[in-house]
Amino acid sequence: MAKTGKLYLIPNTLGNVGLTRVIPSWVIDQVKGIKHFIVENPKEARAFLKKIESDFEQSEFVFSVLNKHTTELDKSNFLDPIAQGENIGIITDAGCPGIADPGAEMVKMAHEKNFQVVPFVGPSSILLAQMASGMNGQSFAFNGYLPIDKSDRKKRLKMLEKQSRDFSQAQSFIETPYRNIKLAEEILDTCSPNTMLCIACDVSLDTEFIKTLPIKAWKKNLLNVLHKRPCIFIIQS
Amino acid sequence: MAKTGKLYLIPNTLGNVGLTRVIPSWVIDQVKGIKHFIVENPKEARAFLKKIESDFEQSEFVFSVLNKHTTELDKSNFLDPIAQGENIGIITDAGCPGIADPGAEMVKMAHEKNFQVVPFVGPSSILLAQMASGMNGQSFAFNGYLPIDKSDRKKRLKMLEKQSRDFSQAQSFIETPYRNIKLAEEILDTCSPNTMLCIACDVSLDTEFIKTLPIKAWKKNLLNVLHKRPCIFIIQS
User: Fold this and answer.
1) What is the interface pTM, i.e. ipTM, of the complex?
2) Most Cβ neighbours (<10 Å): which of A7, A150, B159, B227?
3) Where are the domains of chain A?
């Protein structure tokens, strides 16, 4: 009987920086030996695999594409190679698989099939922002995207601010980069003057910007730097 | 006028594994040039610095010790070298500074003084467990330690289970390793049979164990593996 393979979770850079800046060399070595991948975008995955200098030729790679168009039936077959003794790697377009990306669903399925899941170390903008925020590292929550509707979003912001106060829990969230400035302005207009706000942009890149100030000390003209750059917002009241 | 230094957040391994397994080589290179450190434990920090092959001799390092005995006055002086143009690194005993460790307070102070804070990539058992859990990666919270009192702890577990259901938010927490089995038994006794439970032990080590199952499928005899090993628990209802 063939030995069962494993599901490896392979982080990617958060933008245009060298792999060795954010991925441990041992992880790069492990990925060299993997041929089967579940990816968001084969083009991005090929670029990544070119950088790690895989033991395999580009023509040998087997990609399963996981995105919003992938059917349930397809997904249910993606892990079949593991049963046949092959390892599979999930490569995300940016950051850590399973964190704010579609990979979590495949991981869930792997546990249902009793396959071993191995997470590799790499850059998570959420975690790096939390580290660098100076906010409560004993209790923190990531909340994904806020509602788009302005009044719903205001309510949600108020609620997150209340949760951060009631549970001393730092509350982080994200926005589509081109709407960052708008969200930041709404945070300044909605939250209490003494609530702390951390904005972390371009985390782990040369252009990284991370700053924590009370709401009352943030000036709207400081927010122009956020335009179209990936940001994590963290509040704590 | 001297150029201002920066505060670097330097992760450490989560146990006895080589640095290159969990710390990017570029990060190791950056740390070689740092002489001033804020540490939990100078002995651990010296062992770490020996492994990275610093540009400095052990006798040249300047350590500020940050633990529960450190006075507020001492803390307020720890960042002075930054104003004088020196970089400072925070080295934690295990994992990422600012995450479930005393470093966050120094980071907060750095922001108050308008110093730049730079987080380096490294292993976080909380993040790696979340990645490998297959639970909601769009919304998750880390809650630190639960109350020690049995009835308070039961209430808190019930509340976390409810929060995970109400907000579709995965809820993680930790325990002192020698009490892991007891906590795990209480989770099985307290949570609903269909609530998912991930237990992640010895994350990033050779002995790593990560498993997600519904409460009803966990058997108490499976829990013996947790004894005295660092664990992350995650529930989602």
Assistant:
1) 0.96
2) A7
3) 6-119, 125-236
